[in-house]
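Working notes for the structural subgroup meeting. M.R. asked for a predicted model of this chain before we commit to crystallization trials. I am recording the input and output together here so anyone reviewing the notebook later can reproduce the run.

Input as submitted:
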Amino acid sequence: MSVLASSALTPVRLWRGFASATRLGWTISSNWTRPFVFLIYTVLRPVSGALILVVMYRFITGSRGSTVAYLSFLVTGTAFWGLVQNGLAGLANGMSEDRGFYRMLKYVYLAPLPFPLYLVGRGLAQLAVALVSAGVVLSLATIALHLPIDPLRVNYPMLALASALAMAAVLSIGLTYGLLLLGARDSHGYGEIGAQVLYIASGAIFPIAVLPHPLAAAAALSPLVYWMELVRRSLLGGQALRMFPDLSDGTVLLRLLLTAAATVVLAAFAFGWADRNARRRGLIDQEANW
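Returned structure, recorded in token form:
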């Protein structure tokens, strides 16, 4: 980036570039369809996914009365996991699409707007869609499944703070993962694969204590585990099925802060290395993944 271009990057220009990237992400994620049609899809997809898991669990257990605690655990984890799915897979797939399908990645990379800022804006629209989906799933599940969620007793400050820290970590992972995938022979679908790997070890659908000890110890280093714990404590209060019953809310929040900060720092170093590697190998200029 030239000195002249850098000097022209005022806060107003940065905001305009970021807003344009967000609008682009929204347009692409909605496939240029009408907002109402995309809203229907946005609602039906997560609702159907959550109901499939509920039906599977009800069929396996064959019991209704004793499953409220775990149903709450399962539904809340599934609802909020959409933020990770959309954030990680959206960023990773977006880079490959911008390069191989839309053939614009190299132009965006050379634009005055900082490349990471564009990528965050590109993926932010998907996070907004996932947030709406989570609200819809929880609202319908509370009514249909009689989950013990009282909107007047939800700890909204803790929920918002925990989600903000977790999304900072998710975006950092997504940025680095997407840039690394540019070197793959065929990266189609790898964004979803990466998200599903984290899904298993995040405490979204079952407590990490059921994992083998080495995997459980590794999962405890992830900020997503503590985020899921705080999401359930914020929504369900004392009725939440806890993965860390011996830890207070403040201790869990502190662990989330430390692991999220460590994730962001490590991702920043990895992103710098992947960026230099991509420029050296000419991966930004390629127009296909194979």
